[in-house]
Design goal:
Helices cover 32% and strands 22% of the residues. It has 766 residues and is of the alpha/beta class.
Length: 766
């Protein structure tokens, strides 16, 4: 009997074994998809990872697979190796990795359908020159049909027919029905009439959804400046004994904003293509792929593929299939999910804006970091890795300082443009002296007004979406909270709703307080919606756009907002952190940072690091092509050292102070962190489970275990949450650590009370 071990798309550990019916034995092989029964009535699409004849224990009932879906593997062996690493390192089942990795269309039998298009061909009654002329004569009484028929002859090339029988000598150009209708300004019934007469015939043909137009134009690659050329040469491959000469093949390109890192990437990509290698180019935000796609397609044309979550399921399936074909894309540009695509000859990995937390998947599992996954892929493929950023993550810069990465620096902007001037505004003092009453300081308002008056553009950054953060009754103090989560509801004025940003719960904005009936409800705090209203009222002639999660829910929304701002159709852009990440706008001269305090006051050891990165990055959007830009940074704590580091663009000083603090309190990069979360609908039960697990973990890890404690949001989707923190020395065995954690959890779960307890892990949290 033949058996297969498969991965099921369920959050359960281990592989599952099924038998193979005799009639399917010649069809199964590793890495094909099969339909299998699961439970009493369910079926799943599973992935075969092993075919064998090792009979399971006799007391285990083995079910047979139902069908085989693929004639050839849909996964490369190195991809499965990567899945295993992700499952082990991030402590999640292989089924979770499968769900995250495969496009949705490959996980359901009825989800993916090839795209079909209807084409036109000459009909059975027009198989030679004479019959075509007869058809033309007959159609003289039907002028519209005649126009459609002659248009088809022109489009197909048959109007130049000079011989009697064309089928063996003449290649007829294919014409789609849509193309014919558009060219002849006809309707579908007119085409159908010609089909009914036998003059034309219809046939359906599978067509790809992917853009295959645009030849590569390497001659469009721009020459590098002297500083860029030097950096390129340091990053470029030169071999020693057949291996990259860079340190472990890893390089950190630390270049200030607008220093021209992208042009260096383009030269590196072309170099890799010339060697016959594939390139994976990762970006943290889908918004960034809009501008980057245009720049890369201009040079690499149809060698470039795009992959991210805003693409349809069918498009992602077709890209996956193309990457398995004999003619895959040479370059893949994508967000973090692009690490899961098949790469047959990976030679270069570029991780742009490597510091960005968006590279880390938060929910659901696997909670992987695309940077780490990509670097592991590169290590196995012996590919080079270039990490690029103006604000390196603490871990990456530390590794460069320790000699693990090669450090390449660009300290000047391209063409020696000046970095923007950053002016710090003390909002606490302005409020105290009643000089400032709203969210715009006089300095920021004046700077925006002057910029718009010069025909320039401005960006206003507020890292909160919605209209107001809290709604409160002026009389009794009632404030609406989510019934399922431990958070206040955010007011969204556009939809007149109160929304939970954790579970999605929504209710209508009440007209009066439901507690006391008072109509005096007021909004506290300002999200991007409220900022948009204030900006529009303050600058009535401004053409305002807003870029946040609410305005960019579709793929085209990103493209439209960015295109309109790039072209000058809008001239004042309000946004959340989306606007901080590498976008390049020529005409922006002013950037306003409304509230640095919301970033600095987060209850997280990463708070200052993230704030420094975010504010430095958004400041870098100003003055990129013309005059020196101006940044107005509003804060109530201007004396903080991190603020002076931002003003002086002094990353090295900020890094030194950060490392001193991290080392003193044993945080990364001087320790590894693993967060363990417990969830349950019963608060007392999750409390007791967390205390017990903490006790068991201390038997192995002693004072390396912190907690349990309540997270800042301690209930989400009606589940109470407790959190344990493990601070581990970097030299501890990773496999032994994970084994000890799993053993402690398994021992706790023996208690029947915890049967429905949910336990999950966040390894290397950001």
């Amino acid at each position: 009997m033949l058996y297969v071990d498969v991965i099921l798309p369920v959050p359960l550990d281990g592989l599952f074994t099924y038998s193979v019916p005799t009639e399917l034995e010649d069809k199964v092989q590793p890495y094909v998809r099969v339909v299998v029964p699961f439970g009493i009535t369910k079926t799943h699409i599973a992935l075969v990872v092993r075919v064998h004849r090792d009979a399971p224990d006799s007391d285990i009932k083995i079910k047979p697979i139902i069908s085989v879906l693929d004639a050839s593997p849909v996964l490369l062996p190195q991809q499965y190796k990567l899945w295993q690493w992700i499952s082990n390192y991030y402590m999640c089942p292989l089924g979770d990795v499968l769900v995250a990795a495969l496009p949705q269309g490959m996980k359901k039998t009825d989800s993916y359908r090839p795209k079909m298009e209807t084409y036109i061909h000459i009909g059975a009654n027009c198989q030679n020159e004479r019959s075509i002329h007869n058809a033309l004569d007959m159609l003289c009484r039907s002028p519209k049909q005649l126009e459609v028929f002659t248009t088809y002859l022109q489009l197909s090339g048959l109007d130049s027919l000079q011989f009697t029988v064309y089928s063996s000598q003449f290649t007829v150009k294919e014409v789609t029905r849509e193309e014919l209708i558009n060219a002849s300004h006809a309707t579908t019934p007119i085409v159908k009439a010609l089909v009914d007469k036998g003059f034309l015939m219809l046939y359906d043909k599978e067509v790809g959804r992917l853009n295959t137009e645009g030849e590569p134009h390497p001659e469009r690659i721009k020459p590098l400046s002297e500083a860029q050329q030097k950096a390129f040469e340091q990053l470029s491959l030169s071999t020693v004994n057949g291996k990259p000469s860079t340190v472990n093949g890893l390089s950190l390109l630390h270049g200030v904003t607008s220093s021209g890192k992208t042009e260096i990437y383009i030269h590196l990509i072309q170099e890799a293509i010339d060697r016959g290698e594939q390139v994976m180019y990762l970006l943290p935000e889908i918004a960034l792929t809009v501008q980057m796609t245009q720049r890369l397609q201009h040079v690499f044309g149809n060698r470039l593929g795009i992959y991210h979550s805003k693409y349809s399921d069918a498009e992602r399936v077709e890209i996956w299939q193309k990457q398995l074909s004999s003619e895959p894309y040479d370059v893949i540009l994508g967000a973090r999910s692009a690490v899961f695509l098949p790469y047959q000859r990976l030679g270069l990995v570029i991780i742009d804006e490597e510091h960005e937390t968006s590279f880390k998947q938060q929910d659901p599992a696997p909670r992987y970091h695309a940077r780490s996954v990509a670097m592991m892929m590169a290590q196995w493929a012996k590919a080079r890795v270039v990490l690029g950023t103006a604000t390196p993550s603490a871990e990456s810069y530390y590794n460069a300082m320790q000699g693990k990465y090669r450090l390449v620096e660009l300290k000047q902007r391209y063409k020696d443009l000046q970095l923007p001037k950053i002016t710090v505004v003390n909002t606490k003092d302005l409020y105290r002296r009643k000089i400032m009453r709203g969210i715009l300081s006089p300095q920021l308002e004046q700077a925006i007004r002057e910029a718009l008056g010069r025909g320039e553009q401005a960006i206003v950054f507020q890292n909160r979406r919605g209209f107001s953060l809290i709604v409160e009754c002026h009389q009794c103090g009632w404030s609406p909270r989510c019934p399922h989560c431990d958070v206040a509801l955010t007011h969204h004025k556009t939809t007149n709703t109160l929304t939970c940003h954790y579970c999605g719960y929504t209710m209508r904005m009440p007209q009066v307080c439901p507690e006391c009936g008072n109509a005096d409800l007021y909004n506290r705090g300002a999200g991007t919606e409220k900022v948009e209203d204030i900006i529009a009222a303050t600058f009535p002639n401004a053409r305002v756009a807003r870029m946040d999660l609410d305005t960019t829910r579709t793929r085209n929304a990103y493209e439209r907002i960015i295109a309109e701002f790039s072209s000058g159709k809008t001239n004042l852009l309000i946004g959340t952190q989306m606007v901080t990440k590498g976008l390049d706008f020529d005409n922006v001269s002013v950037v306003g940072i409304l509230s640095a305090d919301t970033m600095l006051n987060q209850p997280d050891f990463h708070a200052y690091e993230h704030a420094f990165m975010m504010m430095t990055q958004v400041a870098g959007r100003a003055g990129r092509k013309g005059r020196r830009g101006q940044v107005i940074l509003q804060t109530s704590r201007p004396d903080l050292p991190v603020i002076s580091h931002i003003v002086n663009n002094n990353f090295e000083a900020f890094f030194r102070s950060l490392m001193k603090e991290r080392k003193a309190f044993r945080y990364p990069p001087f320790a590894r962190l693993i967060y363990i979360y417990l969830k349950h609908k019963d608060e007392s039960l999750v409390n007791s489970a967390a205390i017990e697990l903490g006790s068991r973990l201390r038997q192995s890890f002693a004072d390396r275990v912190l907690g349990p404690d309540k997270p800042s949001v301690s209930r989400i989707k009606s589940l109470y949450i407790r959190k344990l923190v493990l601070k581990l020395e970097t030299n501890l065995s990773i496999s032994a650590t994970r084994a000890a954690i799993r053993q402690a959890v398994a021992a706790m779960m023996q208690d029947a009370r915890y049967k429905s307890l949910l336990v999950y892990y966040d390894v290397d949290p950001v």
